[in-house]
């Protein structure tokens, strides 16, 4: 497993910080009934190894960051 540090995102930050750099993908409900809105980050990627970044928000608060690396 490779460590990637993304210092441009912080769990708990508000949607408004990146809203103009996000593309809505879908809403999913977890096993506890909590809805998460998934967005693709369309802004500038700071790491050349990163192919794509997906962000999960609940009530406009960042709850998860998923990183897809280039193969």
Key terms for this structure?
single chain; mainly beta; 71 residues; 4-stranded antiparallel sheet
Tell me what you see in this structure.
- The protein is mainly β and 71 residues long.
- The chain has one domain (9-69).
- 0% of the residues lie in helices and 46% in strands.
- It is built from no helices and 4 strands.
- A 4-stranded antiparallel sheet has the order 1-2-3-4, with no helix packed on it.
- A hairpin with a 5-residue loop joins β1 and β2.
- It is globular.
Summarize this, please?
With 71 residues, the protein is mostly beta strands. It has no helices and four strands. It is globular, with a radius of gyration of 12 Å.
- Please work out how many helical segments DSSP would assign: 0
Count of β-strands: 4
The major β-sheet equals: 4 strands, antiparallel
Radius of gyration: 12 Å
Order of helices and strands: EEEE
Q: What number is the mean pLDDT? A: 91
Unreliable parts: none
Strand order of the largest sheet: 1-2-3-4
Strand content: over 45%
Helix/strand-derived category reads mainly beta
**Helical residues, percent:** under 10%
CA(first)-CA(last) distance: 13 Å
What does the secondary structure layout of this molecule look like, with pairings?
Layout: E1 22-29, E2 35-41, E3 50-58, E4 61-69
Antiparallel strand pairs: 1-2, 2-3, 3-4
